[in-house]
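subagent[fold] <- orchestrator: predict structure for attached chain, return C-alpha cells only, no commentary.
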Amino acid sequence: MDLNILFEDKYVLAVKKPQSIPVQSDKTNDEDLMLQVKKYLREKSSHEEPYLGLIHRIDRPVGGVVVFAKNKFANSELSEQIRTNSIKKEYMVVVCGKPIKDEDILEDYMKKLITINMSKITSSDDKNAKLARLKYNTIETLEDKEYGLLSLVKVELYTGRHHQIRLQLSNNMMPIWGDNKYNKVFVKKKEFTNIALWSYKYVFKHPKTKVDIITESVPEDIYPFNLFKEILK
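subagent[fold] -> orchestrator:
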C-alpha cells in the first residue's frame, strides 16, 4: 500500500486511508495503516525507532483523513484539542432516501454494545450512555436505478462516539449506503460492500505554531460517491 500523504512536518502526519484497511491491527491480521506509516517513518529515520501516536480513528470500511502525531509533545497537544472538542471533523456521506430536513442538528444518547461491536440509542437516564451530537447538510438528492433516492450529505461531527454517524443517521431515517450494521437493506445482503462514509476534512491547530491546519480528502471515484462527482471535484 502506497501512502497518500496530505500533510507532514516534524510534528504531525496526515494521510488518506483507503477503504477496507484497518487503522490499527486487528484479529484479522490484515495489513493496517499504522504499520505502513511506521515503515514509511523508519525509512526516513535510519538511526532510531520513530514515534507514532494515533490521534483519531475511523472504522475499517471508512476512507479519508487520518492524523498521527510524530512526537509526544504533538500527541499531548492534539489529544487536548480532542478533549476540548476544538478539532473540526467533517464527513461526506451517501444515505438512502431523502432527509426530512435539508439540514439539522441531531442529539441522542447512545451506548456501545461491546459484545456485538455495535451501538444503540438509549436515554440520558442510562448510566452507560453518552451524548452524541452532529450537524448535517444535504448537498444533493438524485434517483438511482438500483437503490432509488440517494442523497449526498455533509456531516460535521461534534462528538466522537462509537459508530456515531452510522447510528444517528439511521435512527433519523437516513441509513448510510453500504452499511451492513445499521441499514436494513444491506444487513440482508450477503456480498461485501464498502460503506459510503468518508472522512472529508480534519481541521486542528498546529501543536507548535497554533495555526489552523486544514487537511482534506475528497471521496474516491467509486460508486455511489461518483454519482455526485461534479459536486465533489
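orchestrator: received. Logging for downstream: Residues 33-44 form the longest helix (12 residues). The longest strand covers residues 130-144.
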